[in-house]
Amino acid sequence: MTLRGVTRKVNWKGIVSYDGPTVGGRLVTNFNFALFGLPIPKAPARVLGVEDNIVLEVDVRMLRGE
To answer: What DSSP character marks residue 38?
Structure first.
């Protein structure tokens, strides 16, 4: 995966389902900010806390072609 010009390998976990002509799936990965050289966002502690863990989820729905 490439973020802001930095490419790293990440592992994705996924589930795929078939329902007639529809194919769907969900992919999930997580990593920390440092893996891609990203700064951890800062906010006042009383307003918001930021953990050093990014979780990405991708949902996909497609129709099978003929």
So the answer is: P
Domain ranges of the chain: 2-63
Residues, the chain: 66
pLDDT digits 0-9 by tens, 20-63: 899 999 999 999 999 999 988 877 767 667 788 999 999 999 99
Q: How far apart are CA 63 and CA 18, in angstroms?
A: 10
What is the pTM (predicted TM-score) of this model? 0.70
In whole angstroms, how far apart are CA 15 and each of 20, 49, 52? 17, 31, 26
Helices (H), 1-66: none
Tokens, residue 13: 């976990």
